[in-house]
Write a structure and sequence with these properties.
single chain; about 475 residues; mainly alpha; disordered C terminus
Length: about 475
Amino acid sequence: MYRAPVFLRQLEPRSARTTAEVIKFALWPIAILTVLNRILIKAVNGNVTDDYRPVYQAALDFLNRRPVYTANFDSVDPHYLYPPSGTLIFAPVGVLDYEKSRWLFILLNAAAILIAWYLLLRLFRFTVNSVAAPALLLAMFTSETVVNTLVFTNVNGCVLLAEMIFLHLLLKRRDLWAGAALGLSIAVKPTLAPLLLVAAVRKQWKVFYTAIGVPIVLNALAWPLMRDPLDFLRRTGPYLFESRDYFNSAIDGNAAYYGLPPWLSWGIRIVMGVLVLISLWLLYRYYREDELFFVTTSSGVLLVAEFALSSLGQMYYSMLLFPLLMSVVLRNSVMRNWPAWVAVFGFMSYDDWLSHRWANLGRNLEYLRITFGWTLLIIVVFCVLGDRYLAARREGRLANGIDPTWVRPVPGPGVTSAQPEPADEPTDTAASSEPGRAPAHEARPKPSGGRRSTSADSRSTTTEEKRISVE
């Protein structure tokens, strides 16, 4: 009798027997079809906004020894703003014709996002067989940040992958390789540069060798090959530090668009900066030994501060906040409250709030929701950590950390929040052999007295399900 290969047998239609299977059977087809729609239809169709054309033109100019930094900054069209090191990295895209080159760049970014999705799952010790896998994949590819990264065809998917590789290697203390991943990203655009502070407070100084060395080497290689490398310093560099009043969701950008006085814009940014500094201090003081929570939360705080407080912040930068959002599965996460997800809706939702009936209101909602979301997230993190600190000080338990009493004891050195929690919910009989989980073949105690056992060993919910359950 013919038996289908194992990988095909996984696709055989069958009825779900558990809640987890029901969710997975429902989410996987929706997630996969959504991914295909975003890559093959939306991205290939493109948009009026085309971030890829100036990159392609710069690659052509570089390969043909023509000036690269010739953008007209008085126009609102996308400009080529990458340094010589980025130009060197992008140069191969100019070998093909524009259309095929763009399709290849879309596939490259899509592949980078999918690999980053898998690394994000593994960062929090989930597997592809968990409920979290299709839920995360669907959430990522329905967000504005992923959709417009593919549709506008920019490099943010590769930057997200560099961030995920950096976080994995940083936690594993593979400092030189972690720095290399970060340095390659910085060579293209410096968006991830604030993450060097995370390495610094963890005293992982070797990260700096390659994070700084890689861009220097690539710039040194590209410099003599370009016709106008000094124009990057003379023309493009100063423009990067200006706050433009279009396609800019940073506080200063929206302040310029709405005509707010400079003192008010600076006042808002200074207040938000103080909240960020206090949050970072509390994270360093009380959570630096809780490695996964500290690295993902502090990285997210640094990046959202960069987006909101710098001269330029665009909505699709929010892709780099996925590790912070995914930290919601940790019991002591700062994301376990509804205001945090109001903020997330502001900068992640693909919804369009422009209204034909209420034009002014709709335009204001659309233009301000990203800035509102970033600043609200800064406020939420500050309030959660500040409330924990004040409660712990009031109760005289600062020496043991500031986690609420309902959270398990503060982990010791080397212990992360992603390790299995105490067994207060069922455990799957088909648990994997990951650290902290019982082998699938381990004997289970039988219920006694005709009643269902409530012991941890006799329950049937996986660790992944437990983490995402409503408490």
